[in-house]
Specification:
13% strand, 12 helices, Beta-Lactamase
Length: 326
């Protein structure tokens, strides 16, 4: 009798511990409907030609660019095409799009406490692309914090929590990405450096395919509730028609530059850019007055200061889509 009681208590405590461990993970909603992407030979030929023009004009080498296009005029079909779309690339600040999706899911499920400070951090992470705000938001999402190195089981427990965003996106069907590191202006130290060096390299990594899918699922209201995704979209809204002297402005220095050059009055832009000393990326959703609706994600490597590549590519894509729409 005593042995049976002891077994029962151990069973209950083990179950409670398992439930507690599970409860801190971000939940995959039962109503979640993954975007149904359909490969399009027509769009593929267009993307291939756009990249060919860039390489022919010697703007960039073929192995230094990755592109994904999703046509959202018919979300039920969502035609798509890519060039090196599954290539894992250091995403710079584009990773903040993934952290935005994660924290908004936690807020919806009341897994984290909403505060004015949290809202300030979310806003600054996306609107201003603040690295400091991103560090704070990732701490909130994962229940971790920077500090001294840890060893053995202590480090393993810390790293498990830090991988919370990765587990959620895996549950949503995303693959070939790594979203578990803070963005920094200089370098990582202490446990952050230890984590980055794990298994020979544990840097953030995204593909243009995964990024384009997430931006599409935000735009279409699939990754969260209608209200939550509308809020996320509002943070990504860029006023490309407003003059700026900042060549790295998210609204005018990336895909938005194409809208300026083409004088597309009435076009709307939602985006998240990212750049380092070696990379220059943009994830953009565009709506034009003539009815085009598309997500275009462009990652470049080794051309961080070449500000013509992304808008030039976007211009080729826009011209191709306009030709197909006629």
């Amino acid at each position: 009798m005593r042995a049976a009681t002891l077994f029962f208590l151990v069973f209950v405590l083990a179950g409670a511990a398992g439930a507690q461990k599970h409860s801190v993970d971000i939940r995959v909603p039962s109503a979640y409907q993954r975007l149904n992407l359909r490969s399009s030979a027509t769009l593929q030929a267009m993307i291939d030609e756009a990249v060919r023009k860039l390489t022919t004009d010697k703007l960039i080498e073929a192995d230094k660019i990755a592109v994904t296009l999703i046509d959202l005029r018919d979300p039920a079909q969502a035609p798509t095409a890519s060039y090196r779309g599954d290539e894992r690339i250091y995403p710079a600040s584009v990773i903040k799009l993934f952290y935005l999706a994660a924290i908004e899911r936690q807020l919806e499920d009341k897994q984290v406490r909403d505060t004015p400070e949290l809202q300030r951090g979310i806003h600054d992470m996306i609107v201003n692309s603040s690295n400091e705000a991103t560090q704070y938001i990732l701490d909130v999402i994962t229940g971790t914090s920077s500090g001294a190195e840890l060893q053995g089981k202590d480090f393993d427990a810390w790293q498990y929590k830090r991988d919370r965003v990765n587990r959620w996106f895996t549950g949503l069907g995303y693959a070939n990405i790594n979203a578990n590191q803070k963005t920094v202006c200089e370098d990582a130290y202490g446990i952050e450096h230890e984590s980055r060096a794990l298994n020979g390299g544990n840097l953030n990594a995204l593909t243009t395919n995964a990024t384009a899918r997430l931006l599409s699922e935000i735009v279409l209201g699939r990754v969260n509730t209608v209200d939550r995704t509308a809020f996320m979209k509002s943070l990504l809204s860029r006023d490309w028609a407003k003059p700026s002297n900042d060549t790295d402005d998210q609204a005018t220095g990336f895909t938005g530059r194409m809208l300026i050059d083409k004088k597309l009055t009435g076009a709307r832009l939602w985006s998240k850019a990212g750049w380092t000393s070696t990379t220059r990326h943009d994830a953009a959703y565009i709506e034009t007055p003539n009815g085009l609706k598309f997500v275009l994600v462009t990652f470049t490597q080794g051309h961080a200061t070449d500000r013509a590549i992304i808008p030039t590519l976007a211009g080729h894509v826009l011209e191709g889509l306009e030709a197909l729409a006629k």
